[in-house]
Amino acid sequence: MALWLKYSGDYFQPELLFNDLPVLKGVGFEGVLLPVLKPDSGGLRTRTRLRYFPLLMLMEAAAQAGLKTGLVLDCFHNPILWQNEEFTPPVNSSGVAYLPQSTYFPVCPNNPQSIVYFDRVLAKMNQLPPPDFYYFEHFGYPFFWQNEELDIQLHVPPFCYCPFCITEFSSVVGEIVSTGHQLFEFMPEWLEWRTETMFDMLVNTRDVLANRAKIIVAVPPLSVIDLPFTTGVLPMAYVKEGFWISPSMLYRLKKKSFAWVEDLFEQYAMEITDKRVMPMFDPASAREIQIIRRWEKQFAAIIFHDRQVLTLLK
Ligand SMILES: [Zn+2]
After folding, report:
1. Which of 95, 169, 181, 269 pairs as cysteine with 298 (C-beta 3.0–4.6 A)?
2. What is the 75 CA–ligand 1 centroid distance (Å)?
3. How far is the centre of ligand 1, averaged over its atoms, from the C-alpha of 234 (Å)?
4. What's the CA-to-centroid distance between 132 and ligand 1, angstroms?
5. Which pTM value belongs to this model?
């Protein structure tokens, strides 16, 4: 089984990677996932610039150490856009705007501002030599899985019902859908439209990147069957189309037990058998790593969530 390590942009400094590289190679890692944008990066305003980590230097250093690289693109979570006075936030099914309560600032994938921002990042990617993977974080409709119940009992998806979504959907069904009641009548079409928008966006994005690297889509730790309803992400179709899926099985963050991780591992291994799943995991002990590695044959890789794992592997 391949092991990967993901670095978070919140604390990342190039020196960390340079120091870790010999250790990572020594304990058998296959690759590293690196953040692309610095956390204090500028946004859409013309005078501010997006601030990138020295990606070329980082990728070269990893390659010299014999490691593969992945670049983490944060797709539809964007604190900078929220500071823009003209920004339209995601809206829930009752017409109430999303209210950020933490560090999660979701943006709607159908919001033109989100798309402009994402396109800028993709254009930058095309100026660099391709990594082995792009890791798409927060790809999908807003869903704050860190805070929400994962046992989905909802009748309608929580987000998004913003003007961009409603207008776009109306044009697809050929009828002006403006009220919640009307929309509920169209629920099967609405759910289908949501998954199609995300699927088309993913395929188009691969084209924009000229198919230069493999794409991993990070997904919340929901059951495979709940993902399309909540996020618009279709794991089965993505895998069939040649993408990879990375469910974030961070049990300590969700205050779940290790048994919960084992259940999810089993479910994903059974339901997606193409070896295109790379679960993300935050082990608390060397023993847990040992247990998780028993899934060696079913998964393409295990991604460790944080470099603290190095203290367990030494
Ligand atoms: Zn929307």
Report:
1. 269
2. 14
3. 18
4. 31
5. 0.95
- Of the candidate CATH numbers 3.40.50.300, 3.20.20.390, 3.40.1160.10, 3.20.20.80, the domain formed by 2-142+150-243 belongs to 3.20.20.80
Report helix, strand or coil for 67. Answer: coil
Instruction: Give the whole-angstrom CA distance, residue 132 versus residue 99.
Output: 36
Peptide bond into 108 cis (omega under 30): no
Distance 162 CA to ligand 1 centre (A): 4
What's the pLDDT tens digit per position in 104-142?
999 999 999 999 999 999 999 999 999 999 999 999 999
Residues that place a CB less than 5 A from ion ligand 1 = 108, 110, 160, 162, 165
Dig out the tokens for 193 from the structure: 């439209």
Distance 141 CA to ligand 1 centre (A): 8
- pLDDT over 50 at 277, yes or no: yes
Q: 103 C-alpha to center of ligand 1: Å? A: 20
Ligand 1 centroid to Cα of residue 14, in Å, is 36
Name the segment(s) of the chain with CATH classification 3.20.20.80. Answer: 2-142+150-243
Q: To the nearest whole number, what is the mean pLDDT of the chain?
A: 92
d(CA 136, CA 220): 12
Sign of CA dihedral 89, 90, 92, 93: positive
101 CA → ligand 1 middle, Å: 19
Give me 286's structure tokens.
């060397």
